[in-house]
């Protein structure tokens, strides 16, 4: 059975480039991003891991820990990291899981046999502090992911977890948000003191409440 939004993210123990990790313990009270790669020493993956390394300050600001997965063995990861650091001008500063027998890959349904039965697809799981799955993305091997988009989703998830709002298309941190349909017109002024615009009865916007 594949994982769906709202499901509890499976816990696991795995060998990683930063030692053995028990996933839940390692996450602690952080949000988590678990993302898989088809294989070591592949060009797109090299750029993705470099990008995530360079974005670590942005993830930390948001209380998010990142962990990558590739089905290649640990020794391969260690040598590949040297190439990533060299070519992407960074330092890989987060763990990469070695999953040679597809233990974690199967748990998270990262093998899509009609794409490849040997490699994981590019999966992304965003996991909340409650260990529930908040977002699932699946990309093909040929398309590198946009990690700015993943940061944008984190901003939306963390905002909407705390306020009765949702974020419109192409929203980014600081833009106006939409007021949740569950909020009655008469309650808006008290809940959103920065003001609001009533475009339609079901489409009401307000400045981002936590800015
Ligand atoms: C890559 O990461 O570059 C890649 C991996 C598998 C197939 C195609 C590209």
What do these coordinates show?
The protein is α+β, with helices and mostly antiparallel strands. The chain folds into two domains: about 15-145, Glutaredoxin (3-Layer(aba) Sandwich); about 165-205, no CATH class. The protein is about 30% helix and about 25% strand. The chain contains seven helices and eleven strands. Strands 5-4-3-6-7 form a five-stranded mixed β-sheet. A four-stranded antiparallel β-sheet has the order 8-9-11-10, covered by helices on one side. A hairpin with a 5-residue loop joins strand 6 and strand 7. The longest helix has 15 residues, at about 75-90. The N and C termini lie far apart (about 40 Å). Bound molecules: benzoic acid (BEZ). Benzoic acid binds next to helix 2.
Q: Could you list some keywords that capture this structure?
A:
11 strands, four-stranded antiparallel beta sheet, five-stranded mixed beta sheet, Glutaredoxin, alpha+beta, 7 helices, single chain, binds benzoic acid, 211 residues
Topology:
Elements lengths: L12 E4 L2 E4 H5 L3 E6 L6 H12 L1 H6 L2 E7 L3 H15 L7 E3 L4 H5 L14 E6 L5 E7 L7 H14 L4 E2 L10 E3 L5 H7 L5 E4 L2 E4 L5
Parallel strand pairs: 3-4, 4-5
Antiparallel strand pairs: 1-2, 3-6, 6-7, 8-9, 9-11, 10-11
Helix pairs in contact: 2-4
The protein binds benzoic acid.
Overall mean confidence score, pLDDT: 97
- Determine the N-to-C terminus distance: 40 Å
Shape: elongated
Low-confidence stretches: none
Q: Which cofactor or ligand species appear?
A: benzoic acid
Write down the domain tally.
2
Based on the coordinates given, report the CATH architecture of the largest domain.
3-Layer(aba) Sandwich
Helix amount: 25-40%
Give the helix/strand class: alpha+beta
One letter per element, helices H and strands E, the order comes to EEHEHHEHEHEEHEEHEE
Name the strands of the widest sheet in spatial order. Answer: 5-4-3-6-7
Which class of the largest domain in CATH terms? Alpha Beta
Number of helices: 7
* Main sheet overview: 5 strands, mixed
Instruction: Kindly identify the CATH topology of the largest domain.
Output: Glutaredoxin
- For the secondary structure, the number of strands is 11
Q: Taking Cα atoms only, what radius of gyration do you get, to the nearest Å? A: 19 Å
Q: What is the CATH superfamily label of the largest domain?
A: Glutaredoxin
Q: Strand-residue fraction?
A: 15-25%
